[in-house]
Design brief:
The chain is an alpha+beta fold. Helices cover 52% and strands 12% of the residues. The strands form three sheets. A two-stranded antiparallel ribbon has the order 1-2. Bound molecules: zinc ion. The site of zinc ion has 8 residues, from loops.
């Protein structure tokens, strides 16, 4: 019973083709956190909400996170219709998802994000979610492959993009790049990123991040 109640149906209208469909979401009130990795992957007792983050239109194949799903320009619509819909085998992701089907939705969303010129940091966050799904599934090679992609996208975004309008602040992003470098075995680069964040004048205003930073810093130093 609990499994069924964890998910609910959300009705969505596709902003590309106007088709109406149902997608599942996880009830926030049902989430029971078990643990959190140092790069912010959260594990829950039941369903992990990441699996349902991407809405996929069964009719035209448009896939994106909820915040990107509405308000699409006519130019972007045209890109989806030409590049995605023309090759789309109609199928639905509206049922309970396995990790494998969730992985498919993220790959599609990343591909669409590239077509629609998302910011590097936004693509990086999609890629990080994909790496996490592979971690949950125990596929280390693919996890590392997408952590590398995330690192490259985040580093490029950190240096060239504004963080306004996206759910990310400079210290958190710098910490994440450091932690991803650490996971990839790039100790010197990880330390360099951690020390940049450590010297940020606002670091004392975020005691949780500061303590994570110091823990990971020590982990490298003692490793
Ligand atoms: Zn559609």
């Amino acid at each position: 019973m609990q499994d069924i109640d964890e998910l609910y149906d959300k009705k969505v209208k596709c902003s590309v083709c106007n088709y109406e469909f149902i997608t599942k979401k996880v009830r926030i009130s049902r989430l029971k956190l078990i643990k959190r990795d140092e790069d912010f992957l959260s594990y829950y007792k039941g369903e992990n909400p990441i699996k349902y983050n991407i809405f996929v239109c069964p009719n035209c194949g448009f896939a994106a996170t909820e915040s990107k799903y509405s308000l699409i320009t006519s130019n972007k619509k045209r890109i989806i219709l030409n590049e995605i819909t023309s090759k789309w085998n109609k199928r639905s992701y509206g049922d309970k998802r396995t990790i494998e089907t969730a992985i498919e939705t993220f790959k599609l969303a990343i591909y669409i994000g590239q077509l629609l010129d998302y910011k590097k940091i936004e693509l990086g966050s999609l890629s990080l979610n994909l790496a996490w799904l592979y971690r949950i599934n125990g596929n280390k090679d693919e996890e590392m492959r997408f952590l590398r992609l995330t690192k490259n996208l985040y580093e490029e975004g950190f240096h060239n993009e504004s963080l306004v309008d996206i759910n990310m602040d400079e210290m958190k992003l710098g910490y994440l790049i450091g932690e991803i470098n650490r996971r990839l075995g790039h100790k010197d680069k990880a330390l360099k990123w951690f020390s940049t964040v450590k010297s940020n004048k606002n670091i004392n205003s975020n005691s949780i991040l500061k303590s994570m930073l110091m823990d990971q810093w020590r982990l490298i130093r003692e490793g």
